[in-house]
């Protein structure tokens, strides 16, 4: 699978972080993201789709959450709930630093994707960040069990998204990023929209994606 390239840019954004930055800025700049409206009981969170160079190729950071607390043991993106007065972008960048020790500023944010209405009662805002030289992650043991990297090329591969039929007639998305690595919505839905909108240039939405029952906790 090859990402669409700018004809004036000879570098492949799946293999070059600077080329990916240019591609992502262009795609997100023209993407009309949706925002979940305020409602009684709605809580908000921000997460980061953070692209860095890992093992010589552009990759997105994922985490496996600690085996205690909210979302124990689940795959996720660095992020968390908004504090009073924060924007989703501010909360996402703060949590990126608190959870895995990486510092990013507003200049590193290229844009955002659709809010995802999680079954847990959160509206999750994904922001896309590129860091050229972030240094090694330093995960907080209270929140993060481990840090992982999914290459952009793996995200773009045809065999990464799998749709599993459900008894009610719907389909459950699994982003199969490696052996025994299955990421479901909400995180899987945000990764899929990132893949489709930024890497493949398609205008898609994900708010109605099926979420496993265990994500409601």
Automatic annotation (TrEMBL):
InterPro entries: CoAse (IPR045121), Nudix_hydrolase (IPR020476), NUDIX_hydrolase-like_dom_sf (IPR015797), NUDIX_hydrolase_CS (IPR020084), NUDIX_hydrolase_dom (IPR000086). Transmembrane segments: none annotated. Residues 42-177 form the Nudix hydrolase domain. Its cofactor is Mg(2+); Mn(2+). It comes from the Bacteria. Belongs to the Nudix hydrolase family. GO terms for molecular function: 8-oxo-7,8-dihydrodeoxyguanosine triphosphate pyrophosphatase activity. This is CoA pyrophosphatase. Its EC number is 3.6.1.55. It comes from Actinomadura chokoriensis. Keywords: Hydrolase, Magnesium, Manganese, Metal-binding. The keyword Transport does not apply. PROSITE patterns: NUDIX (PS51462), NUDIX_BOX (PS00893).
